[in-house]
Design a protein that fits this description.
heterodimer; A: mainly alpha; four-stranded mixed sheet; elongated; B: 295 residues; alpha/beta; four-stranded antiparallel sheet; 11 helices
Chain lengths: 401, 295
C-alpha cells in the first residue's frame, strides 16, 4: 500500500478518535475558559473607579480633596473609570474620628494641615495618602501662583512635558509591551504544548502496545506509517488547539482593549505557530519512541522522565532569553535544537533576533528532526514488539533493521 | 499456497525456530499443533513480518511474502488486539482500510461481518463494553473484513464457550470452502481432528509431523486400542507387546500399540477370561499421533 495513504489513515483515525474524546473536548474548552479568565478578569476588577470619602474638619481640607479629585480624573484614560474623592464635613474631630473608625471615611484632614488615617492596613494600603499629600502640595503651589507672577513662571518650567521615548528597531514603547506579552505568553504556551502533546504521543504509543493492537497493525503497516500518522494526527489536534487559543486570545485582547495595542504582532504569532510545529515534532518523536519501550502505562512516565527534564531545561533557558535577549544564554539557546523552539520565538517577539540567526536556528532544528525521525523511528520499530520489562533505548535500536 | 521454508530463529540462548517447514494449501484448513513454547506463535508472526527469521523464508504462491502480499492476509494474534474505546464498526472499517479497502467497501464489509457474527446491535458500542466472547468475535472480524486469501489465527478457540466454538468453526470452514487457505493453532485436538484437513505438529521449533490427517493416521506405525471388561484386565493386557503408552479413563483401558502388534490374541484372551464390554481397535486418534510425535 502507498505509504502516504497508510500514514493518512493512521492520522485520520487519531484525529477522529482522540478529537471526539471527552478529554480533548474538555481540555480545549477548559483552556479557552482559562484564557478568557486571564484576559477578562483583571479587566473586570479594574473596571470602574472607586469613590473615596474624605472627612474634613475646619478650613482648607475641602480644597485639597477637590484638587485630588480633579487630578485623578485628569490622569485617567477614561474619566468614567477614574477614582473619585469626595468631601464629608464634620463639626469636630471627635465626630470625624468616630466615622473613620466605622470606615465611613477613608481619612480625615484637620484644618488643612493634618492627615488622620485609620489603622495602618486600611490607610497605608491604599493610594489615598499619597494622592492627598500630592494634592496638598499642588494646592499650595496654586495658592502661591495666584499671588506671585515669578512663581507662575517657575511652575510653568517645572510642568513641561516629559521626554518622548523612542527605541531603535522601530518598536515604540507600547508595541514593546505587547511584544513582551506575546513572548511571555508564547513561552508558557510552548512549554505546556510540548509537555501535553508529548504526553499524548507517549500514552498513545504505549496504549497500542499495551492492548496489543500494534501486532495487528504491524501485520500490514510499517512502523513508520504508524509513528508518522500518530505525529501528524496528534500534531494536527494540538495545532488546532494552539491556533484556536492564539486567535481567540488576540481577538479577546483587541475587543476588550485589555492592552492598548497599536497593532497585533502578526509576525510573532505566525513564528510562534511555526515554532510550535517544529518544537512538537522534535519532542513528540522522542516521546513516541519512549512509549514503544514499555509494555505498561505505569512504566511510560519513567522512560519519558529524562525528556521532560530536557524540556524543562529549555524552558528555563528561555527565561534567561526573556531577561537578556542578546546574552550568551539566549544566543546558545537559539542554536541548541531542544531550546530553540522556546528561545527563538521569544527573541523574535522582543525584536532581538536577526533574520540569519532565525534561519540558522530553524535549519538546525529541522536537521535534528530529520535525524531523530531515523533514530527514534528505529527505536520505535525495535521496541514495539518486545513485551515485558522495559526495553533499553540501545537495545531497541539494535534489534530493529 | 503458503510455504514456510526452513525458518530458524533464536533469541539469545533460546531456539524458537529450528528449521520449521510446512505449507498451507488454498481451500484447506491446517491445524498447527505443538506443546507450549514449541514455536507456533513465532512461526505465525514470521508470516506477518513481525519476527525476522535468522534464516529461511515465507512464500505465497511461489513469491517471497512482502508488505503488499500481506494486505491479502488476515491475522488473529494470540493476544487479542483491539482499541478499547473505539466502536466495533469503526474498528472494522479502519482494519479494512489499512488493508487497502476503499471506505465504501470497508463499511459494507464491516456491516456484513457484524451481521454474520450477531453483533449488528452492538455496532456502535466501544469494544471495551463488549463481553469477552463478543470481543473475540470482533477480533475474528478484523481478520476477515478485507476478505483475505490466507487466514492465520493463533488460538482462535481459546476462551470461547461451546456456542462460540461452533460459530468460529463454521466461519473457518466456510472460508476454507470458499478457497481460502486457513491455518490456526490450537490445543483442542478433538476439535482440530474434526475440523482440519491437514495438520502440522511442531516441537522444539521443528515440524515433527505434517500432512493430511487421515493419511497420517493410516500411515502411522501405531494403533489405538480400547478395552473394558469384567475380569483380570491387567493380566490380559500384560500379554500385549509393542505397547507405546497406556492409561485408564473411567475404567476403560486405552493403549497405544505398534501397528505390527497382533491384537486378536488379546481379544481372544479377554473373552476367554471374562466378559468384554467394550473393545475398539482403530487408527490412532490425533491425540495419539500428537503424543507420539512430541514424546
Amino acid at each position: 500500500m502507498n505509504g502516504l495513504r497508510a500514514v493518512g489513515l493512521v492520522a485520520l483515525r487519531e484525529i477522529k478518535e482522540r478529537g471526539r474524546s471527552r478529554a480533548y473536548i474538555f481540555s480545549t474548552i477548559f483552556t479557552l475558559i482559562l484564557l478568557a479568565g486571564v484576559i477578562l478578569v483583571p479587566r473586570m476588577i479594574d473596571g470602574g473607579g472607586t469613590t473615596y470619602t474624605i472627612g474634613v474638619v475646619g478650613e482648607g481640607g475641602a480644597e485639597i480633596v477637590e484638587t485630588a479629585d480633579a487630578a485623578s480624573v485628569a490622569a485617567a484614560k477614561d474619566p468614567e473609570e477614574a477614582d473619585r474623592y469626595e468631601v464629608r464635613e464634620f463639626d469636630d474631630i471627635a465626630a470625624a474620628e468616630a466615622a473613620l473608625e466605622e470606615d465611613e471615611v477613608e481619612a480625615i484632614i484637620v484644618d488643612g494641615r493634618e492627615l488622620v488615617g485609620g489603622p495602618a492596613g486600611a490607610f497605608g494600603g491604599s493610594d489615598v495618602e499619597r494622592v492627598l499629600q500630592q494634592a496638598a502640595g499642588t494646592r499650595r503651589v496654586q495658592d502661591l501662583v495666584a499671588s506671585n507672577e515669578e512663581a507662575a513662571e517657575v511652575v510653568e518650567l517645572l510642568s513641561s512635558e516629559p521626554l518622548a521615548v523612542r527605541r531603535l528597531g522601530g518598536a515604540d514603547v507600547e508595541d514593546q509591551a505587547v511584544r513582551g506579552f506575546v513572548a511571555f505568553g508564547g513561552l508558557i504556551l510552548m512549554y505546556v504544548a510540548i509537555l501535553t502533546y508529548g504526553a499524548w504521543m507517549l500514552s498513545g504509543v504505549t496504549e497500542e502496545k499495551t492492548n496489543r493492537v500494534v501486532e495487528v497493525l504491524l501485520s500490514t503497516l510499517r512502523p513508520w506509517h504508524i509513528l508518522g500518522g500518530k505525529l501528524l494526527g496528534i500534531g494536527a489536534l494540538g495545532l488546532m488547539q494552539i491556533v484556536l487559543l492564539i486567535v481567540m486570545g488576540a481577538v479577546a485582547v483587541v475587543l476588550t482593549g485589555a492592552f492598548d495595542i497599536p497593532r497585533v504582532p502578526v509576525d510573532s504569532l505566525i513564528a510562534l505557530i511555526g515554532w510550535f510545529i517544529l518544537g512538537f515534532l522534535l519532542y513528540a518523536i522522542i516521546y513516541g519512541a519512549a512509549g514503544s519501550l514499555v509494555s505498561r502505562m505505569e512504566d511510560a512516565q519513567s522512560t519519558a522522565g529524562p525528556l521532560t527534564i530536557i524540556a524543562l531545561i529549555g524552558y528555563f533557558f528561555s527565561f534567561a532569553a526573556l531577561n537578556d535577549p542578546t546574552g550568551t544564554v539566549a544566543i546558545v539557546g537559539t542554536y541548541v535544537p531542544f531550546s530553540a523552539p522556546y528561545v527563538a520565538p521569544i527573541r523574535l517577539a522582543i525584536g532581538e533576533i536577526s533574520p540569519w540567526e532565525m534561519t540558522l536556528s530553524v535549519v538546525i532544528t529541522i536537521l535534528t528532526i530529520v535525524l531523530l525521525v531515523r533514530l527514534a523511528g528505529r527505536v520505535y520499530a525495535g521496541g514495539l514488539l518486545r513485551y515485558g520489562a522495559r526495553v533499553r533505548w540501545l537495545e531497541a535500536f539494535r534489534s530493529a533493521e | 499456497m503458503l510455504e514456510i521454508i526452513d525458518l530458524h530463529k533464536r533469541y539469545g540462548d533460546v531456539v524458537a525456530l529450528d528449521g520449521c517447514t510446512f505449507e498451507v494449501r488454498p481451500g484447506r484448513m491446517l491445524g498447527f499443533l505443538g506443546p507450549n513454547g514449541a514455536g507456533k506463535t513465532t512461526a505465525m508472526r514470521t508470516v506477518f513480518g513481525l519476527v525476522r527469521p535468522d534464516q529461511g523464508e515465507v512464500r505465497w504462491n511461489g513469491e517471497p511474502v512482502d508488505a503488499d502480499t500481506r494486505l491479502r492476509f488476515g491475522y488473529m494474534p494470540e493476544q487479542r488486539g483491539l482499541y478499547p474505546k473505539m466502536k466495533a464498526h469503526d474498528q472494522l472499517v479502519y482494519m479494512g482500510r489499512i488493508h487497502g479497502m476503499s471506505k465504501k467497501d470497508a463499511t459494507a464489509a464491516a456491516d456484513h461481518w457484524l451481521d454474520v457474527l450477531g453483533l449488528a446491535d452492538r455496532r456502535n458500542s466501544p469494544t471495551e463494553t463488549l463481553s469477552h466472547g463478543n470481543q473475540q468475535r470482533v477480533q475474528l472480524a478484523t481478520a476477515l473484513v478485507h476478505d483475505p486469501d490466507l487466514m492465520v489465527l493463533d488460538e482462535p478457540f481459546s476462551g470461547l464457550d461451546p456456542i462460540g466454538v461452533d460459530t468460529m468453526a463454521e466461519i473457518l470452514r466456510d472460508q476454507a470452502r470458499a478457497g481460502k487457505a486457513v491455518v490456526f493453532s490450537s490445543h483442542q485436538l478433538d476439535l482440530v481432528e474434526d475440523l482440519c484437513d491437514d495438520v502440522a505438529i511442531i516441537n522444539h521449533g521443528r515440524i515433527v509431523l505434517a500432512g493430511n490427517v487421515k493419511q497420517l493416521k493410516d500411515a502411522a506405525p501405531i494403533r489405538h486400542l480400547e478395552l473394558e471388561m469384567d475380569g483380570p484386565v491387567d493380566e490380559v493386557l500384560a500379554a500385549l507387546d509393542g505397547v507405546r503408552s497406556s492409561e485408564v479413563v473411567d475404567g476403560r483401558h486405552i493403549v497405544v500399540v505398534d501397528a505390527t502388534t497382533d491384537v486378536r490374541r488379546v481379544l481372544v484372551e479377554a473373552e476367554r477370561s471374562g466378559v468384554v464390554r467394550h473393545f475398539v481397535y482403530s487408527s490412532p486418534s490425533l491425540t495419539d499421533l500428537f503424543r507420539e510425535a512430541v514424546a
